[in-house]
Write a structure and sequence with these properties.
The protein has about 425 residues and is an alpha/beta fold. The protein has 13 helices and 20 strands. The strands form five sheets. A ten-stranded mixed β-sheet has the order 9-7-5-2-10-1-11-15-19-20, sandwiched between helices. Helix 2 crosses helix 7, helix 3 packs across helix 4 and helix 3 runs parallel beside helix 6. About 50% of the residues are buried. The structure holds inosinic acid (IMP). The site of inosinic acid has 20 residues, from helix 4.
């Protein structure tokens, strides 16, 4: 299947985990290239439900190698918990099926404290972060004061560097009215985690270079979505990494000319968690989906904000990611509707916009221009072939992929592997 970059083409939670799981069958290596444990992929092992935050879900399949690459920010204590959770389910994770980059940056408790304190300070202007310390960790990376995995597993360097950074960060925590962190406690906790993770830490750039030279199929799995991208998203209501396809190259050290295809994953409607503009947001569809028990976050449990499909946004996603193919998920969520709406353009200040404005304040004032589609009012969750989908459903899916500007190749009507159709 060649080297494929998979990205979320909306605001995250597009159902990437399920599509990654399906595509993993054809790949040898699965690489996570950005973000941290702010992401959550729900996976099912028989009747057991498990939420993975850092480890690619490829770990659940035999003979696949998972890589946590350099662009990820890694909470080592959280990762050890994830390893223990997998081991309790009988999943064996060893250095032969999990590799962690030496240069991935490490999340510390002060990053989480600062994430939370900054959100409180912002009041109504808060971003609605997951409070996992993601922004402050990437901030330290950019300011060149971060810790990398190579520092964490270095027995002599780690305690010295930790003391230095803790003193400096405690001053900031105290200035924000928080409780300073205890050096011995953090040292003990992180030393235990470092000892567990040391065997997995390696030079993943060299490993991936050699894998591409021998022609291995590699899947680069994106976390979050296009509009949470630090450069291309609805700034400042974004996460702190590059969630778009370019991030897969910088986040892994695999160059652009080794990538073959970009797949964009979309929901058949729109959702967003946290604050920030969402032009097609709609209480009718939100209430309906929440009433069905759908659209609650895998990491924080927060109810997601929901809206109609926004084709202006997904067209933009195709542009910045270079999406070749689309996977549309959660189609079954719309099964009961009589009619559906799609946002085809925005209206603001007497003008019609066909592209997303970069100014978030302008985007927040945009009103959708709708196109209405007839619903199919038929359950689709048991359908296993494209030709058996109701004609209105196929019409809707082909229309939204055409508006998005890429070829529809996968349709998903439920969380199970069997609820997937290939075109
Ligand atoms: P942070 O990544 O925790 O800093 O949060 C920044 C923004 O990204 C917030 O609006 C979060 O709700 C959102 N976000 C972060 N991770 C995810 C995700 O995996 N899915 C959806 N939204 C996310």
């Amino acid at each position: 299947m060649a080297n494929v970059i998979l990205v979320g083409a909306q605001w995250g939670d597009e159902g990437k985990g399920k599509i990654i799981d399906v595509l993993t069958e054809k790949s040898e290596i699965v690489v996570r290239t950005q973000g941290g444990n702010n992401a959550g992929h729900t996976v099912y092992l028989g009747k057991d439900k498990y939420v993975l935050h850092l480890i690619p879900s490829g770990i659940l399949r035999k003979d696949k190698v998972c890589v946590i690459a350099n662009g990820v920010v890694l909470d080592p204590v959280g990762l050890v918990k994830e390893l223990d959770g997998l081991s309790a389910l009988g999943v064996s994770v060893t250095p032969s099926n999990l590799q962690i980059s030496e240069t991935a940056h490490v999340v510390f408790p002060w990053h989480r404290e600062l994430d939370g304190a900054r959100e409180v300070k912002k009041g109504n202007d808060r971003i609605g972060t997951t409070k996992r310390g993601i922004g402050p960790t990437y901030g330290d990376k950019a300011a060149r004061v971060g810790f990398r995995m190579i520092d964490l597993i270095h027995r002599e360097r780690f305690p010295v560097k930790l003391r230095e950074r803790l003193i400096e960060n405690n001053e900031v925590i105290e200035s924000l009215g928080g409780t300073p962190l205890n050096y011995e406690t953090v040292l003990a906790e992180y030393t235990i985690a470092a000892d567990r993770l040391r065997p997995f830490v390696t030079n993943t750039v060299v490993y991936l270079y050699e894998a591409t030279r021998r022609g291995a199929n590699i899947l680069f799995e994106g976390a979050q979505g296009t509009f949470l991208d630090l450069d291309h998203g609805t700034y400042p209501y974004v996460t702190s990494s590059n969630t778009t396809s370019g991030g897969a190259c910088t986040g892994s050290g695999v160059p652009p000319n080794r990538m073959d295809r970009v797949m964009g994953v979309l929901k058949a409607y729109t959702t967003r968690v946290g604050e920030g503009p969402l032009p097609s947001e709609n209480s009718e569809i939100s209430d309906m989906l929440h009433g069905m028990g759908r659209e609650f976050g895998a990491t924080t449990g927060r109810a997601r904000r929901c809206g109609w499909f926004d084709a202006v946004a997904t067209r933009h996603a195709t542009m910045v990611n270079g999406i070749d193919e689309l996977a549309i998920t959660n189609v079954d969520g719309l099964d009961t509707l009589k009619t559906l709406r799609v946002c085809v353009a925005y209206k603001v200040d007497g003008r019609v916009l066909r592209h997303m404005p970069n100014d978030c304040e302008v985007l927040a004032r945009c009103e959708p221009i709708w196109e209405v589609f007839p619903g199919w009012e038929t359950p689709t969750d048991q359908i296993t072939s494209w030709g058996d989908l109701p004609v209105n459903c196929r019409h809707y899916l082909l229309s939204i992929s055409q508006m998005t500007g890429a070829r529809l190749t996968i349709t998903s009507v439920g969380p199970a592997r069997e609820q997937t159709m290939f075109l």
